[in-house]
Design brief:
Blueprint: E1 16-27, E2 30-42, E3 47-52, H1 58-65, E4 73-78, E5 81-82, H2 88-98, E6 99-103, H3 114-125, H4 131-141, H5 157-169, E7 175-179, H6 187-202, E8 206-210, H7 214-217, E9 222-227, E10 230-234
Parallel strand pairs: 3-8, 3-9, 6-7, 7-8
Antiparallel strand pairs: 1-2, 1-4, 4-5, 9-10
Helix pairs in contact: 3-4, 3-5, 4-5, 5-6
Length: 236
């Protein structure tokens, strides 16, 4: 994780910085302009919500920030490193080192226990050390010590999302990208998940959360609103 303990804000580079970012998709003979000259800055340790109607460009932006896609033009720096010119393998390495993902549908492997699901990122990275112990610690961090051997089918929606959060945390990422993490949960469970994410931000992690729910976005320190591939309002 990025060391923020000994640096003041003025010397710490933004963890996310985009300049005039565009993304154009070819659809037959037509072009779809998903992002139109988008520029944002998110500091290390911030909790930022991203809102907008379907088709506003939220998912495209999240994919670019998550190093899953590349822009058509413009610049993107992640923790001070220019991402736009990296190769696919270089982006994958940077993504594995710095980013944890949380999805609306949990994306847990159904035949794997909670512990096995959380261990996967470390196994993919061939991370040194005791993989099992690190996975157990991540599950303990989200309050699931007693459920580590349960399959996803044996877990509630809230427990499944906690497993997904533990999986995102296990490699100690500096940045967490959460795509509608409470979308499949009831309101009470959703509040529990948001308290958990807020606590992670207080520990020093940066969180970018996509949501349609203003009650969920209220947990963030500021909110970015998207329309037609652009930021139209910054609530910060």
């Amino acid at each position: 994780m990025i060391d923020m303990g000994s640096h003041t804000a003025e010397f710490t580079p933004p963890i996310i910085q985009t300049e005039d970012l565009t993304r154009v998709y070819q659809r037959g003979h037509s072009e779809v302009h998903a992002l139109r000259g988008l520029s944002i800055t998110i500091k290390a340790g911030e909790f930022v919500a991203l809102m907008g109607a379907s088709g506003s460009g939220k998912s495209t932006l999240l994919h670019l920030i998550g190093c899953l896609d590349t822009p058509t033009s413009g610049k993107y720096r992640l923790a001070g490193r220019e991402v736009s010119t990296l190769t696919k393998n270089e982006r994958a390495h940077l993504r594995n080192q710095l980013i944890g993902f949380i999805f609306q549908n949990f994306n847990l492997l159904p035949r794997f226990s909670a512990l096995e699901n959380v261990s996967l990122p470390l196994q993919y990275r061939r991370a040194p050390g005791d993989v099992r112990r690190k996975a157990e610690q991540a599950l303990e961090h989200v309050g699931l010590t007693q459920r580590i051997h349960h399959l996803p089918s044996e877990l509630s929606g809230g427990e499944s999302q906690r497993v997904a959060i533990a999986r995102a945390l296990v490699a100690d990422p500096a940045l967490i990208l959460a795509d509608e993490p409470t979308g499949n949960l009831d309101s009470a469970t959703g509040k529990d998940i948001m308290r958990l994410l807020t606590g992670l931000c207080q520990e020093g992690r940066t969180i970018l959360l996509v949501t349609h729910d203003t009650q969920i976005s209220a947990h963030a320190q500021r909110t970015l609103y998207m329309r037609d591939g652009q930021i139209v309002t910054d609530g910060g």
